[in-house]
Each structure stands twice: as C-alpha cells, then as structure tokens.
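Let us begin with a simple case.
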Amino acid sequence: MNVIYFTNIYARNGWKWRLEIFTADVVPLSSPTYVDLGLAVVSDEITWAAKYNKLPIGLSETPSLKLKFNISALEDNTTLQHLRDRLFDQFVQYTFPTLSGISASIDVTDPVTGIVSQVVVYGTTPKPPAVKFANLSNVVRLTSNFGDATLDFADLKPPLTFAEYFGGGVSATHPIAFSGCQRIAPPAEITIDYENGAVVGEIEFMHLTRFVLEQINPTMVDAKIQELSAGTKVGYVTQNKWTGGRQRTMAELGNDDPNSKGTVMYSRTELQDAATAVYKQIRDAVLRADGWVGIPFDILGGLMFANFFQQNPSNGQRGGLLTGGLGDVYVIGRVYAPTVNEDGSVDTVAGMFSPGSKFFQFKNLFDFMVDVCECGARAYYTDVGIGIQSLAHNDNSFPTTTTITSNDIQLKKILKSGETLGGVELACAGENQLINNYGTSLVDNTFNVKPYFHNLFSDWIFGFENGGIGFAGEIEKQEGKLYYQASAGDFIAVHASCDFKDNAAYQVEANFNSAAFPPLNASDWDWNDIRDKFNEFYAYWRRTFGVIVRIGNAIMRNFANPSQAKIEGSTYPSNSIQALPSTIGSIYSFDSSVTPAFLNVPAKAILTSASMNVMDGTVDVEFICVSSPITVTLL
C-alpha cells in the first residue's frame, strides 16, 4: 500500500516528535498518501533505547524503539485495517531481478601439463543476482526537533530520496532519531486492556542496519565481490615464501611449480565495496525507495588499524607506514587448487572466501561486524549505518559535549570501580594471549577479543635455498593476514610491528628490535636449532609488537582504572545537554558538583546506556568514568 502512517507528538519537555510507519511491500513508495493516526493509536509508552554491554568497546547493542498500539483504533477503514494486519504479519519476500550477463574469466596454467586454460568462474549470461531475495519488513522512523523552536512538525517529515535527504543538511532540516524494522524476535505481543476496553499491541522495532546485515551471508559478499571485481586477477604463487627477510606472496603467471596455487588478493576497498553494495541493495528494497543511496559506512572497520601497519623492507627491518593507508591493504581472498577440474572449474582451497574458512563460519554479516568491531574502541549506529572510532584513530565521531552539572542529572547510583577490567584475552590466527593488569588482579572481569584481520606469523617449514635459509608458510593458514602490494603481482606481508602512540606515549618500546633479526645464512646457526630459533623470534614479535597486543594494551589502559566509576541517573535533555540513545559512546565532562569529592571520580565520562521516555522527555542514563579518553597520534 502506498501509504505512510504518522503521528505528531508534543512531548512534555516541549520537544516535537514525528513518528512514521510504512508497511512492507515490493512496490516502491511514490508520492505516498499520508494518514494521520492521531494520538488515539499510539499510547503514551514510547521507549527509545540503546546501550553497550558493560563496557563501551566494540559494537553497541542494537538500538530499539518500543511502541504500544491501540489495535482497537485500527478498525474504521481498510487503510487502518491494513496497518493493523501487517503489524502482526510483517514480512514480504522480495525477489531481485536477474542481472545482465557478466562473463568474467581467469587464465590458469595447469602445473602438470603447462597448458594455459581459460576458466570461467563467474558464470555466463544470464547471471543470477548476488542477492536473490530479501525479507522486507515494516519500517518505523522517529524524528524530532530536539528542542529547536525553529523547527515545526512540517520540518520533521523525512525525505524519501538521497537528494532530499542531504540537500539541506541532515541535522538542519531532517533530524532522524531512529530508523528500524520488525524482526522475528522479539515477537509482537497482544494484551487485553479490560479496564479501558481496548486491545493493545506491543511491538519492538530494531535498528534498520541490524535488520539488513542479518540477511547478508558470506556467500552473498563472495558473489558480489566477484561481480564487481570481474577480470583476470589470478596467477600462480609460491606458497608464502620468505625471501630477503620478508614474507611475500608472488603472483607469477605461467609458473609450473606443482606446489604453486592460483591466488586472488583482494584490497580492503574491494571488500568494502562488495559488502556495502549488498547492504544497499537490501536496504533500498526495505525502505521502498529506488535510488536512495545513503552514506556508505565502514563494514570492515576493524581494518582502521591498518593506518599504523609498517612496510616490510627487503632487509627485514621495519619500514615506514603504508603510504596509502587503508588503500594499501590486501588480504588473500581465495587460493585456487593447482589443477583444473574436468568441467573447467577450479576449486577454492584457501582464503577468506574458501569453504570452511573462518569468514564462512559467520552466520551473517552482523555477526561478523560484532567480531570486527571489537578491534575498535567503540562502534555506534547511525541512521544510515554504523560509525566506528578505532583504538588507533582519533576522530570526531564521539565529540565531547558541554559539561554536565548537578542540575542536569538526578543521580541514582554510583558504583566505584563497577566495571573495571581485570584482563583482556585475545585470540588471533591460532595465537592466544592474556593481558592482565596487576593493579586489578582481583577483578574477575575479562574482555575477549578475536581480531579477524591481523599481522601475525604462523608456523613455517624450513629448508636450504641458494646457500641460505629457505622456508615457507602454508598459505592455507593465512586467512585474515594483511599484505601490501610492493609491485605488480608481488604482495608483501605487513610487518609484525604495529606501533602507534596512545595518549602521546608509546605503549611499548618505540623502536623495533632489529638486532634480534635472525641471520639469513644457514651456516650461522646449527641446523638442528634453526626451527626453534626462528619460531622463538616470531613469538617475540607476536608478544611485543603484534596488532593483538596493541588492541589489548589500549583496552586495558582505558578500562582498567581503579577510579573507573559507574554513574546511573536520569536526565532531562535540553538544547545544550543531549544524553540520548543516539549519542551513546560520546564523551561527556562532569562538573565537580555531580559526584562527591572523596570518591575521586574522573571528570570525563562515556555514555554507555540511554533509555528515553519519548513522551515525557526523561532519559535513564549510565556513564563510565575514565581518567583520560582515548586520543591517539600517528607516528
């Protein structure tokens, strides 16, 4: 139905709100009819909430909007009955049209016969779409003037197109507070209000971004990246040889080494573009707005750490930062078997998009995002996606607001050291590491991090090569390892060191210990000891310089402080103080009047939870106080 249902709400704190709902449909909205539900349909209970689970690390819990509908008031006509029925039968399946044919091929040399065969791996015309269908659901939008008297209800009508949305600035003309959809869980509930003779339906809408990401599985991203990256990108590679003091993956077309495999390296940009393209395709269908482009967001945000990865020069020393930053970063996308099947296909045996890979073990892209965002300090939902502030990146995603005084918050509880961390347990590329804080050793609170993208070493196989030490790592075990392209077809693993300054101080020694680098000539060591010596050296790098150490140290420095109090209370937001669900993760300043002086509570605090009663304008909030918020400086 080409209808948008709405209700204008004048809250008790003077703020104006507009609530809009439109039902799931495969037909885009075009010049829709607006139906005013009035105040009889939506009850006084409208709860807008968002929070972090204990600590403001990683992706926050999914923001939600909980509404109560007077179902009895949706019976007067077919238009209202349509809304009533769809609220309890919310899904419509949308089938995407078949794409125009894309015939993308790769050249593969059979290592046994030496014959070059052209293998079509992406299919021929017509090509099925990467996303075959999506579940569309009812959409709710909540907008507000947030106390700005210059904006009236007419200004709160959200646009439907990209041009409208950003034509006058989001905050100025279209301040959307929340966009959400109905999921399977939690289910809609119906209760009977005998006192008022009404049927009441309680429905919780979850953030639009989660609803879309949960429908994207790794296979969809795989298909989309092949579609977007069509072309000859495959050569044969020696199995992660170590040459000239650095690990390299060399694409050599025509190599007849039977131990070689055809390999595709994907850049961070290609991964991002593929994941975002699938996201937009489903999101636009859900929003029923063709061409609603929106802002691309960093689905692979954990790679922001790559800004601080070092190059790996031929002498084994640590080089400078990657000159192109994130644009320089590559991962092994797929490793093809060295032989061609009878049907002309080539099996994928390793890499990010191989069967049985860690990436393919994620049920959907939302679960993947949860893991990836643990490598960032905080990640939060916006109307158009997810924003990330990395531990290794100081930006303005979480601005410091004006100072909160005792007049702005009604304190309910102060927990001294309520959420202090006792340790960080990290698992990455088969390497487990526990970072403890001795000052909080009695705290039984450990944060677990599992970085997908990394710069760690794996086990190696050793032998003689040209009078020196030749050794190779199994490329099948390199999933998530980061590379940069030194030259065409020549990919070098980023250095095991990953330095950055944390609050103007190095986390560990600033200079890489080059003196510990092993000799390149086998005659310098006893052959019986060489494997142990090399692996001891790699373990030293992992313990001291690896990305997981950087993540663990940064988390501990920020969230293992004995003075890390937890503050609970209520606020009454005004134009100057807006501790809202959309601002969780933001850093606030506490005036000395807020907490008793003897508690020695830090003046800075991060908003970790906010639940707003939209009708009366009050917000139940929780803060975690931190001695000094994350500020990081590039080397």
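The second case is a distinct protein. As before, the sequence precedes its structure tokens.
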Amino acid sequence: MSRSRIRAVLGLAVLCVLAVAAGCNTDPLQVPLGEGGALRDGAADSDADGAGSDADGRVPGDGPGEGPPDLSYDACRAQVELCNNVDDNCDNVIDEGFDKQGDVRYCENCKGCAALINMNAIPTCQAGKCVISSCAGGYVDLNKDPKDGCEYQCTATGLEICDGVDNDCNGQVDDGLTTPQNTCKQLGACAGSKPVCRGKDGWLCDYSADVELQPCQTQADCGAGIPCVSNTCLGQVAGQETRCDGKDNDCDDVADDPWKGSSAPQQLGADCTPDASKLGICRDQGVIACNAAGDGVECKITTPGQPKKNQELCNGLDDDCDGKVDETTDDAAGLGVVDATVRVQRTVGGTAYNFEIYAYEASRPDASSSSSGTQEARACSKPGVLPWGGVTYASALKACQAAGMRLCTAAEWLVACQSAAATLYPYGASYNASSCNGLENNNGAPLPTGNKAACESGSEGLFDMSGNLREWTSTKTGQTSTGKDIYLVRGGAYNTPAPGLTCPFNLTQAVDEVVLPANGFRCCK
C-alpha cells in the first residue's frame, strides 16, 4: 500500500472518531467525492482492472504533490439550530427554542406572519395560526379574511354624512342617512320633488328632466355650495324658462312664460296666418304654438285655406278671396253676393210696380238651420236658415242698405204677397192652417226659411209672407207722444192666429225701436 493510500485511510479514521465524539450518527455507506467534487461509486472502482486505479493506472493520491482525497459523508454535521423544520444541531430535536404557537416570527410552522404586514395588517399568532390583530392606519379588514390582510383602504371620520365618502368605513357610501327637510320647489314640473343624496355634491332635489336648471359657466354663477356641472347649477331651478313645450319648466305655476302676456311679441294661442298675401277663404288659418325644436313659437296651421270660389256667397266669408266679405253684385270686383230675389212687375189699382224683393225672409250671414247667427253686417236672402228676428226698424233698414237694397214699402209688400191673382192668402183664397207657420201650427218659434213649401205666393217664388215672422215695412203710420216713429208691420208670425195671417192685414204696427222676437224683415230694390 502506498504512503498516500495509508494517509487517506488514517484521515478517514480520524474523521469518524471526531464525528462519534460529536454525537453524529454515521452512515456505514461512505460516499467519497472525487476530484472537483464529482461523485464516485464507493462500492467499486471506476475502471475495470480491480486495482482501484483510474484510467491511467494511477491510484488517486499517488504521485508527487497529491494529498488525501476530499471525502464527505451523509452523516449529521452539527450547525446552529434554525426554525426550518430540520434538526440543524443534531440533537434529535427539531426547531427547539422557537415558539411556533404564539410568536409571529415562527407562526404557521416557521412560515411567520410577515405576509400580513405587507398587506397593511398588524398580525398576531394564535394557536399556530396568523391572525389580524389590527390594521395599519387608513386600512380596514372589511371582509374578515386574513388571506388578504386589511384589504379596504379607508379612514373613519365619524357618522355617515352625504358627501360621497364612506365616513364610517363599513364598505358603503352615504348609507343610513336621514333625509333633511324638503325645501324643493313643488309647482309645475317640480311637483313631487324631494331631496336626494348625490354623493360629493351633497343633498340635491330630484327634479325631473322637465325642470330647467340655472345655466352657468363657473362655480361663481351658481353661488356658494351649489356645483356647476355641465354648464348647469345642480338643483337650482332657472329664474326664467327658455323652453316652449307646454310645461312649467321654471316651476312658477305658469307654463311657457316668455310667450304669454301682453309683452310677448307672439303670444301662444293667438290667431295667425303663415301667408298674409292670401285673402278670404284662400288664406290658411293658424295659431301661435311652440315650434318643433321647443325653443320658440311658430304659426301652426289649424284650418287650411280653401279654393277660391267664382261667386261670393252671403255667409260672412270672403269666398272669392278679394279681401271683401259679402260684397254686393255691383261691387267693382264683379263677384259679389247674388241674393235670392223675385222681380215683381205689375200694375195694381192704377199704380205700376216694378221692383225686386227677397224671396225669403232676411237672415244674418252666419245663420244656419239651427241658429239665427250673430253677424249683422248685412242682410241675406237664402233658404234653409233661421230668419233674423228680434230686430229694430233701424237695424233692419241698415242691413238692407248694406246689401244694396232697402226696406219694402207696405204697398210693395202687399202686391208681392197677393201675386197676380190678388188672393187673400199667399197660397190661395181660403185659409189653410198647415200651409204656413202660424199659431195653429203649434211650433212656437220660427222655422228655417222656405221650410213650408206650400207657403208660397202663387207662382212668384216668394216664401213665408204669411206667418213665421212679421216683417217691417218702410211705411210710417205716425209717432208716439214722445216723438218715436211708428211703422206698419205685415204678414203675421208663428204666434199669429188666422185673421192676422192674410196679405191685406195691416193693423199691426210697431215703434221703430221696439225689439220683438217675432219681428223680422225682407228687403226690396
């Protein structure tokens, strides 16, 4: 055996003695480490010659300058004991001296609770488990789960108030608040509004979109405590609405203020026409109403214009669209009213008569079959409308003159009533209660003109000269003691008995200013 081999064996023996003295439990299998720390098989040589030599035939350690081989074993080597679940000091006790049950440094089997510190928590160790003792300033353990530490960043400031902040750090913002006194406006579009917490903006009225808010450019435009957001002062109702939408947007109990009242240039609801150049029935009629944009008004057509008629009708309208209403046939425009008249041309008692007379009792322009109308600009002669009763002599005369005619004389009226046959009644020589509208007809009121077809004066085409309404004539019979003129009234009325319904009956007279429902008239020229 070479000297180098002997030295190696002796060195190994010394190591074992020292290891036993230190209390190590040696492993009978020695695992030598070769040059450079490479593992070698301790049970056999690496070569095949059985001599323990390497490839060049030399035994490690032989030769000049080589010392004993670097040998190591898996035997226990004593070190300082650490908390790592290993018997570092080889005393057969693991992690002695470390409080894994109550010391945050060694809690949870040496893991420690440093992770909680990194999660804003102040930890403690209870029964070997890391738990949160408290939280770092500005943090709260809201979910009570130690896995994420004090996860909620919050600094409690007291009871919850309306400010958009979780004042009591319970994870809810502006909860459990007491609504303050309702100071919201309640008129118009503001009706039913109440204060609502709007976070950082505080308590604001929950006004609907129909409420117009005060416009602003800066906070100063709104006043103290009122935020200017998107160019409106939150919760502050505008002093004057600018919308035209039929709603009271400024909550002052008046809708669409700028377009109402005498100062408004165009008042809502006022009559208007979009084209003033059109006249009469050709003109569109409308009213001032809110425009589609809702920021002003416009003339909206309610009654479209009608096509121009070739002849003016006596109806209170400008039918031929020339700017004149119910003008007479001799008007310069040449399209005036053509009243229904009958020409009477005959000689009676040596007097020659040649005149025109209304075929029907005079009526107002706007009369209908159910209404006698209200317009009194002129008289009309047309069938199927209620005649003009309750008229004074002066009004009857004026109405005929406006129609280009005059009141008939008593003599003209009689000649027209009797026709050429000079009969006692317009329809014949004997009385027929059903022919005309007299007392025995029991109507108690005038009928529409021409309603009684049998009540016609012979072949003349004159209707209702007996009954229906008594008719003023221009024949004056005298004066009252006070100087009032008295005129003859002919023909009888709906409340006249048979004797007063004859054509010649001339005992009915009336003071010119008297107003009787049964008094009417017809015109002549």
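Residues 279 and 307 are 11 Å apart (CA to CA). Residues 3-21 form the longest helix (19 residues).
Keep these points in mind for the review questions at the end of the chapter.
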